[in-house]
Amino acid sequence: MAMDTLYEYQIWQPEEGEDDINFAISNSHLLPCDCFLFHLRFRHVLQSNHSQEFHTLLNSSLSSSLIPCDVFLASGSSILIAVFSGTGVAQDFLDAAVPDVLSVAADIVCNPLNAGRRIFPLAVSVLVVSLYNEREEIGRVLRESSEQAFKASPACASAIEGLKNLEIDVHGELLIGECRICLDELMNGMEVTQLPCAHFYHRECIVKWLETSHLCPLCRYAMPLS
């Protein structure tokens, strides 16, 4: 899959009233030591390279945890790597973000405005944007199909005939995108044919494609073989 990935992140001390901070602060007298209330907001989206407005959410999570300040400041790197490991972020992101998080955490503890606190809210928001190049991917599939034509297997006729047609209806939008086979524009109100994987094309384009290959040009979803 032809993709580049971009990372954006923010680190800040949330104000009282955000998320579950009030609950934690109201019970801070029960804590045996000063703690960071660490919030992680994570989102990963797939964005088409031809339009920044069209994207698909791949993954999102919101987690909070209490971490003793002395432990976090002493072993923060390993703690953060463990926390981020479940999100699948790249090592380059960890190399850049982890020192920044630790720096902000140290500043929060040393800030005179936080004197007397038992709970130190610390929030990190991460946005991962994977850029999907449809033209490059279609070109790759077409090249592979041409080079390995003898391996291609057409979809069965009944599966092709059973494909559903639908009318594009997106309020306020005129240009929707492109048919990923012929690369002609798709306009609002135009009738298209949708595969079970939810990708849609001009009917004549996808029928001709499936008569040669049973795989969706974009995601390789396998239609029934003839």
TrEMBL record:
A Pfam family found in this protein is zf-RING_2
Q: E.C. number, please?
A: 2.3.2.27
Molecular-function GO term, any one: zinc ion binding
GO CC terms of this entry:
cytoplasm
UniProt keyword annotation of Transport present: no
Keyword Membrane (UniProt): no
Mind listing the UniProt keywords for this protein, alphabetically? Metal-binding, Zinc, Zinc-finger
Its Gene Ontology biological processes? protein ubiquitination
- What's its catalytic activity? S-ubiquitinyl-[E2 ubiquitin-conjugating enzyme]-L-cysteine + [acceptor protein]-L-lysine = [E2 ubiquitin-conjugating enzyme]-L-cysteine + N(6)-ubiquitinyl-[acceptor protein]-L-lysine
Stretches assigned to the RING-type domain = 179-220
Q: Which PANTHER family match?
A: E3 UBIQUITIN-PROTEIN LIGASE PRAJA, F6A14.12 PROTEIN-RELATED
Protein name in the entry:
RING-type E3 ubiquitin transferase
Its taxonomic placement starts with:
Eukaryota, Viridiplantae, Streptophyta, Embryophyta, Tracheophyta
Q: Which gene encodes it?
A: LOC111489156
